[in-house]
Amino acid sequence: LRFDEKVRVVVFKSEVKGVFCAGADLKERAKMDDAEVGHFVKRLRNLMDEIAALPVPTIAAIDGYALGGGLELALACDLRVAASSAKMGLIETTRGLLPGAGGTQRLPRCVGIGLAKELIFTGRQIDGQEAFSMGLVNHTVPQNSDGDAAYQRALTLAKEILPQAPFAVKMGKLAINRGMEVDIASGMAIEGMCYAQNIPTRDRQEGMAAFREKRPPQFIGK
């Protein structure tokens, strides 16, 4: 996906009705020794980092349970859509653990330190409406009879992104992600570097031409 230039948006959904991702299999985990657990969690953390580093926008469609590593997967995405009936939580402390695949870092960046600490310390599960109210998800929708309401909303959101200039969207994502980790002056410099890469693109010229000619732009990602 990282190197496929035809890919403009990635939507993560589950093929299991009622479950987005239930997290690690604790029965499997119980059979591992300490070293194996450490290696397993490191691989999970690396996977979430790879998802977060995808250059195109990513959307998690949460139509059911997103618990532990399942919520960490959703947090690694840029945008999240949830059914109002979905259940989410970093429940690791209820099992003698702590989030180990990015949850302690991505949740506070998403909802703020105070709420993140409360959710992690208590291991509480929240529904889609609560998640929306605290900014954990971008949109919440009533579940439908097919159990894929969040996925359908995620597709609608993806279709809003698709017509936009692909390289500009990628640079926007890069500027936001890198800029959020530094002070604002450094962030401005990052934005400037990303903008400079976008200036010579054919899509920028097409955007200007389409505006002058009062027609929809036809972006090609170049």
Report what the structure shows.
The protein is of the alpha/beta class. It folds into two domains: 8-160, Alpha-Beta Complex (2-enoyl-CoA Hydratase, Chain A, domain 1); 164-211, Lyase 2-enoyl-coa Hydratase, Chain  A, domain 2 (Orthogonal Bundle). 50% of the residues lie in helices and 12% in strands. It has ten helices and eight strands. The strands form two sheets. The chain has a four-stranded parallel beta sheet, with helices on both faces. The longest helix has 19 residues, at 34-52. The mean pLDDT is 95.
Brief characterization of the structure:
With 222 residues, the protein is of the alpha/beta class. The protein contains ten helices and eight strands. The strands form two sheets. A four-stranded parallel β-sheet has the order 1-3-5-8, with helices on both faces.
